[in-house]
Amino acid sequence: MHIMNKYYITTPIYYANDNPHIGHIATTVFSDIIARYHKLQGEDILFLTGLDEHGEKVALAAQKAKKDPQQFVDELAKKWQSYWEKLNIKYDIFMRTTNPEHAKIVGELLTQLKENGDIYRATYKGVYCIGCEEFKADRDLVNGLCPEHHPDQVCQKEEENYFFKLSKYIPEIKKGIADGIIPLEPESKRKEILARLEEEVRDLSISRQNVPWGIKLPWDEIQTVYVWVEALINYFSATKIYKKEEFWPADLHFLGKGNNWFHSVIWPAILMSAGYKLPNKLLVHGYLNLAGQKMSKSLGNVISPDEVVKKYGADVTRMYEMFMGPLEATKPWNMQGVEGVHRFLCKFWRTVIDETGNIKSTISDIEADEETQRLLHQTIKKVGGDIDNFRFNTAISQMMIFVNHIGKLPALPRKAIEAFVLLLAPFSPHIAEEVWQKLSHKKTLAYENWPKYSEELAAEKEIEIAVQVLGRIKDKIVVPADADDEFIKQKALACEKVISAITGKEIKKVIVIKSRLVNIVI
Length: 522
Ligand SMILES: [Zn+2]
What we know:
CATH architecture of the largest domain: 3-Layer(aba) Sandwich
CATH topology of the largest domain: Rossmann fold
Distance between the termini: 75 Å
Strand content: 15-25%
Helix content: 40-55%
Shape: globular
Bound molecules: zinc ion
CATH class of the largest domain: Alpha Beta
Number of domains: 3
């Protein structure tokens, strides 16, 4: 089956050794907003999230909890799903790498790579971090230790492994990332990968001995597949398991900066070797943190999402996480910011809903006035453009401007409110849906169309201003109706006729009479 407008988006496949924290929530909410937005654009969506359930760390966490690893991940998977339910995350697939069908597809894919001559056996010697579950290159170590894990996690290790000929694909990957064939954003992360690709890239050890909690290599039962390799394959295997093959390749893999290398270099290399299409976009986000430090379990600075959701609800939690700043920034968590978003949503609610919980009587089928119309079209344009460019914080700022404006209107045009509700919906689905129903719609807004804007209606009104020198009109300038005095002054002084009239003379004063004229006194 071929579908015209498909959109396949994935969160990172999360490591199943603990409950989700605020950072996981940020990436999942982000993906959910993108998915909801594309759905309102009329596209066919496949939204995948899930858990990477194999590997040493999971086995250790299970042991600590005195549980069998499968039981441990089964319970965790339920917990993660309940979190996503609380946060109103509408995923289509919750992928689990302990799914037996996943193991089968991983085996087939790696066999294919081996038959292509891209897998060989060799001895691996090096510094190994149990925390990262990977051999570390010198560049990854600080004083011989892993910067992200406790010293006792790092050891020398030597073993027989199978290797994937990653080095063979490096020139093509390098070119792909440089030319945008493998679109990697943001620019800072793209540069980081390109810089690392300038160094020597060794082949990748793709199997481990003595890691029983994993997928066995089909041709060597003693070796299990390196957990990172099989985890990456989930994005592909899920489309087969859930009979969604037509959605491959992924349109957007959303990932954390800690796993940029795996997604941007190793994953495309595996796909190239297997002869599958590469993902259409890789997008890296910054970590969410408390005080400049990466938030992760091993560093112990974890805010429980439960607390935030309980106190403020899903909509505020979702929106606040997206309001915290540009995607690539490492973000400090700030409870005052949470309050700010809370106030914004309350303000919108109070603007359209009265004390009895009904739509305010000030909302009717009137035409929007010129200013409201313009601001609405500007808001539609800005919010859509910002979502397309993953700038959710500025999209939210624009929505705040709109709500401030309608809060001052004595009468509210229903059409404008409805359009705004649709813009709000991906971010704040509960409140948007509730207001939508109160506006006497019988059906959910999920199948509505994203509002359209007109450039003409969104354009700022412009006015013409006369420019005088010593009281005599020299020229006319056109400026936006809301331009400030400084802007008007600069524009007036830049007129050619004005320049020739004042050359060699000292400007004593520039008088701006708003929206009428500028007089330059020399
Ligand atoms: Zn480590």
